[in-house]
Design goal:
It contains eleven helices and 14 strands. The protein is α/β, with parallel strands linked by helices.
Length: about 325
Amino acid sequence: MGVRVGVAGASGYAGGELLRLLAGHPEFDLVTATAHSQAGSAAGAVHPHLSGLDLTLGATTAEAFQDVDLVFLALPHGQSAALAGQLPESVKIVDIGADFRLSDGDAWQRYYGGEHAGTWTYGLPELPGQRERIANSTRVANTGCYAVTTILALAPLIAAGVADPEDVVVVASSGTSGAGKSAKTHLLASEVMGSLSTYKTGRHQHVPEIKQATGATSLSFTPVLAPMPRGILATVTARRATDQDPREVLAAAYATDPFVHVLAEDRWPQTASVSGSNSVHLQATVDADSGRIIAVSASDNLGKGAAGQAVQNANLMFGLPETTGLQIYGVAP
């Protein structure tokens, strides 16, 4: 018998991706999964790609997770804290929501509203020293999808002093699954197909998370909804502070990381290359006209941006190789 695992909020896109990854994990045994409106439904009925998975979604209560070793919380922002507070300390938790990511309560109130629930270990292993902190934690806050894609491109550049933390601009496009599974008019196929649109312009909730993890002090972030189901492509620009090559800085920072790949100089990231994987592809250069640094990052918002990252963190929490049960390579075409 391996590690007994439960998933709260299994009916959403991130929850469904968690079920898929856990069903193939060699050390984690998926024993329970819950939902709200879909409680009582078979997992394969809610997620047709999981037909054959012998699992019925139950109601989301603390009692549903009393006999597990690990719980993934894939609940809407603001709903994780109440359930987490009812679970025994012996149960390890990875929260995919935003409830415990921020250390600044004022930032939480400004971008999310309501009372700040507290701060857990931040779940991005590639940040310096973070693997050890995650491995020694029983409560881990997973990254946001835009956040991880941006942080991995930006953090080493600021840490090395090559990028000015006071002048950072990010434009990032995301697939529609990043907006969740709830029916919304602006996410109808006829509204999305053949169109790009910005949203939450100038006030996106991942801004304080990115600043917290990278040391950026001024960040302009523009999210773009793209007509595709999954994937994020982030273009990060910053004023150049030294003459170091930004690509070489990224390559040195991630030389031993299994999921972060700095591409050859003549190649640029694309979302299709990381689809279905837990990897992030990076590239960086210096703009010939402005002299600004340009770093481009691609990830799967349901993989490294959510469920894959959560499994990577859980692997570390249970002393497993962090790549266990995860794909380094994407699916093509």
